[in-house]
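B., you asked whether I could sanity-check this one before it goes into the benchmark set. Here's the sequence:
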Amino acid sequence: MSYNKLFARLHAPGDAGGRRFRFLAVALAAALAVPALGAGTAQASDTRGSTSGDVRGHQNCGNDVRHNALDRIYLPDGWAPEGITAGRDTTVFVGSLNGGGIWRGDVRTGTGTVLAPAVAGRVGVGLDYDKRANLLWVAGGGTGEIRVHSALTGEVLATYVVPGPVGFLNDVAVTPDAVYVTDSNVQQLIRIPLTTPGAIPPASALQKLPLTGDLQFQDGFNTNGIVSLGHNTLVIVQTNTGLLFRVNATTGVTTRIPVTGGPLTGGDGLELKGNTLYVVRGSVATVNVVRLMHDAKTAEVVRSFTVTSLDVATTAALTRCGLWVVNARFNTPVTPTTKYWISRLHFNR
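And here's what the prediction gave me:
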């Protein structure tokens, strides 16, 4: 799909999926114009550091993260981030809409470097880390690509081109059996089976899995964040409706998860720890803590954090140093000097 066609899919004001789509379309358009780079609500505030890589707070990152404080680590100027994933120990990886680069950082020290340089024409939206093979799987948005990078060197080891119809490849979940990528505009999952541990499958292995059952696509951004529950079950969020769904990873049959305290309108990135699901809602700069119950047949919002320092939050990664949230700043023009950062939210996990 061309970017012109992607950007043309704009929708009327008032629907969160449409707003999120417009934010991301504007960010992508701006990024393409910039040279590629090498139960209660808690109000959270942060302490802004003076230099890139600055981080304040509990740098030993022990198991006790009870303090409701928000810290900040700066990304390279003009980075235009969207996705984040946790690696080994205190490492995180942050992708870039502006050229598909990958930044690798240590959330304990606040230091980082560009692992994979940006390349003109590439896009990096959601990404996930495969710890068994030390690989990063990256969704390419409207380019229709899925890339595999070495998490050690950043080298691109494989590129999958999804045949049409394909819309916007948004988020990624790596399981022991397969890699799954959401398509926010076509009612399907992209599935790449992992049959040999550590091996990268051939291009011919890519499959399209139609999504059936309770999920019904509407105007705007639809399926977005995705996580694996294990036992052949995925959970996805539909951005424009705020609904959660269980997905049979083999058949694609979806079942709505009733959420007490929902809907989770504007839901973007998902992060899972045990039966606790963290839902990043970019349009309202909120992280909802959702308890999954009865094998994820029901759910309840048990806590919410409004992150006042983030204009548009997108995704999050949970580490032993807390939950780190991306500030994508879709409302801010992308320039070579635009500041971007990830912020840390502390609470009992």
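One thing to flag: The radius of gyration is 18 Å. Otherwise nothing jumped out at me.
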